[in-house]
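Supplementary Methods, section 5.1.

A reviewer requested that the exact input to the structure prediction be made available. We therefore reproduce it here, unchanged from the version used in the analyses.
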Amino acid sequence: QAKKKNGARIMLEPGGKYKCASSINIAGDFGQGLEIIGQNSIIQATHDGPCISVGNYAEPASEYRIKFRMSGVNVAGSGSGSKAASSVGVLIQECAEVSLSDCIIRSANIGLKLTGGLICNFSNLTIRDNAIGIYARATSHFACNSNVFNVCRIIKNNVSAINYHDFPNSAVTFIGCEIEGNHLDGTADDGTRVCEFINAGELNLIGCHFEANKGEFGLQFSGGSKAKTLNVIGCEIIQETANVMFVQSGAFNVIGGRIWNGRAKNNIIVDAGVSGFVSNCDTTVSGSTGSCIVIKDGHLNIGGIDLVSTINELNKDVAMLKSRSISK
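The structure derived from this sequence is encoded token-by-token as follows.
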């Protein structure tokens, strides 16, 4: 159990290797916070469970904002197969204000697991070689709200990259992240969603790059209500999945970038009742597009109707009617 001390700082040996036979549990009132600073240090779990566990709802309410920071640490789980079914790199549970930066989280069944972790910041993380990269769920006390992933790499996870549920009243944001090479054994009809956001609030993807992910769905968004929105700004989403981006419920906005699978179909798929706006993105939109507006290549398409082409055809008809009237 991490020792409670106001503003404590733990310095790990540069390049040091630490093996842990049970979870490193960090919980309690650290006042100004607790910081672990590694310098390419490795913490290796040898047990089937979380390597590092942060937070504990049993602590008094004032201690939920734990102010824990960790940087420069390579966290290795005990494996991602059936023999390590409970292996987790970093577990954040029922607490707030956790910051992880410049870390590698690898070789676990779940790399980063949040159960009620909120108001967290993740910067320059590499989450790789796990079964599932990021897994987030709400608890009866907290949802995984107001979390930001900045310039993170979620790569080569063999089941899925991101599995994020139950944040209908808040926002989750990914900025400049790389999501690549996940579920490489996937097939077009395997039912896998490489990145899924279910019962979601506001999901913001800004300047992110998705590539070489395989499976049936590359990205699925299901909003917690019609007003909950997927916002995709300047992203390159180039999937090898059968369906690139599926919006099952809620709404979506796409500005710039590219959403593409190499075929002129199944790029953005819209389910019934979804409204959307797409501006100057190299993509196609299919499905129930009756409430969608698409601006592309100087054309304005509303509800599946190309207004520019329609107006041009109407102008031709008007011109023809005029010419007939004059000839008479």
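Residues 23 and 51 are 5 Å apart (CA to CA). These observations are discussed further in the main text.
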